[in-house]
Amino acid sequence: MIRTILIYGAPELQTKSSPITDFNDEIKTLAQDMLETMYAAPGIGLAAPQVGINTRLIVLDLSGGEEVGHQVILANPEITEQEGSEKGEEGCLSVPGFTAVVERPVKIHVCWQDIEGCPQEIDAEGLLARALCHEIDHLDGILYLDHISLLKRDLIRRKIRKKARAGEW
Ligand code: NI
Q1: What span, in angstroms and rounded, lies between the C-alpha atoms of 162 and 143?
Q2: Can you give the pLDDT at residue 27?
Q3: Exposed end of the chain (fewer CB within 10 Å): N or C?
Q4: Considering the domain boundaries, does residue 28 fall inside one?
Q5: Cα dihedral sign, 90-127-35-140
């Protein structure tokens, strides 16, 4: 089932999410719904708070569903190591119509649990590292807008407020 993606301004997007302790059917359904919602958007990553659920679950598919075997579901993901920093352009399904350059680590090590609760880990770099950092941030109520310059952030906020006044946000 495709769920509604919340946009900037929704309190769920600025709330710290709770860990998953019970890998039950509800979580499995949420993960499947999030994948469906992400592909429909379309996007390459989605975090549970973006569909209004403050639980530590993210889904990723860097191929956007174009290729099989790229789909990943991560419960309770944690960045345990990080190295370097590089700038790259990011957008977010919850901030539609905007992008900005964000500084992220070049390499990260991430630990998580799969949908059955089994521990997993990966070394990631490039776009995968960036996408993981972006989505994991969502679980802590952080948007990419929180990482950009005050000037650029205010500019985007002003444009959003203008859209909101026009009933377009
Ligand atoms: Ni996002």
Answers
A1: 20
A2: 98
A3: N
A4: yes
A5: negative
Neighbours of ion ligand 1 (CB under 5 A): 92
How much distance in Å is there from the Cα of 41 to the middle of ligand 1?
Answer: 12
Q: How far apart are the first and last CA of the chain?
A: 23
> Could you tell me how many residues make up the chain?
169
Taking only the tens place, the pLDDT of each residue in 25-78 is: 999 999 999 999 999 999 999 999 999 999 999 999 999 888 888 899 999 999
Domain coverage including residue 129: 11-165
Return the ∠ at Cα 144 (arms to 141 and 146), rounded to 5°.
Answer: 70
Q: How many domains does one find in the chain?
A: 1
Place of tokens 């993901």: 77
Q: Is 90 a catalytic residue?
A: no
Contact 15, 9 (CB under 8 A): no
The answer to whether position 6 is within a domain reads no
**What's the mean pLDDT in 71-91?**
97
What pTM was computed for the model? Answer: 0.96
> Which residues are bridge partners to 56 per DSSP?
none
For residue 18, what is the DSSP state? B
Distance 50 CA to ligand 1 centre (A): 8
Sign for the pseudo-dihedral over CA of 19, 25, 28, 34:
negative
